[in-house]
Amino acid sequence: MPEGDTVWNTARVLHRALAGARLTGSDFRVPQLATTDLTGATVVGSVSRGKHLLLRLTGPDGAAPRTLHSHLRMEGAWRAYAPDERWAARPAHLIWVVLRTADAVAVGYHLHELALVPTAEEDALVGGLGPDLLGPDWDVDEAVRRIRRDPDRSIAEALLDQTNLAGVGNLYKCELLFLRGVSPWTPVGAVPDLPGLVSLGQRLLAANRGRWTQSTTGSLHRGQTSYVYGRRAQPCRRCGTAIRKAEQGERITYWCPTCQPDPPGGTGEQNRTIG
What we know:
Strand order of the largest sheet: 1-6-7-5
Oligomer: single chain
Strand content: 15-25%
Number of strands: 10
Radius of gyration: 21 Å
Order of helices and strands: HEEEEEEEEHHHHHEE
């Protein structure tokens, strides 16, 4: 699933292509919006909220502002094209939204949670999210407060909970815990310096904002961008121990058993390696 920085980058692409322009046509290829016509609306801008995309519009003839909401999940993507450019990013049958202006065409592929709502009611869709690591509402103290509400929960699962903080995905979860030397199975209440861990997560996402290659190591070279994520059985970059991979909740976790030792009284769940 795309991380918060990927969604932020996508929102910026849409903003640059559409903001301030009047829509000359729209085509929604999903049942819930099949009869919707946004022709004549002006795009105010595009922003991200955690992993959610919000495209804000003002309607013609003084109509109330509306917001087109979408979520990328695993397969979704937005692309911006010139009017005469071929739409080559994905197969045509995956195109679910087309928005046209005089100078650009925005094409949404395999998008999820598509909804058109009054802008004043955006909170109905994203109001339950925690502070956005890349947003103006970022508040490390509030994020820590939310995470600590369930001290017995594993820190890996707590970081992925978007109601705690919005934007962390599986890649950053694994890399962040490695960098802090914390086992993914450590209960929240036993994590040392939780504010420091959360703050590092924000810095990791911010460092990758504005580029499509995500790196937590400082290198942008292929195969050198992560410490543990996607590196099962490869040697740890710090100690040489083979990186391990296991199911944790509904997600996959990568970690180094030497650099991230079991928490005191650990359950041994991390020994259930797979793949």
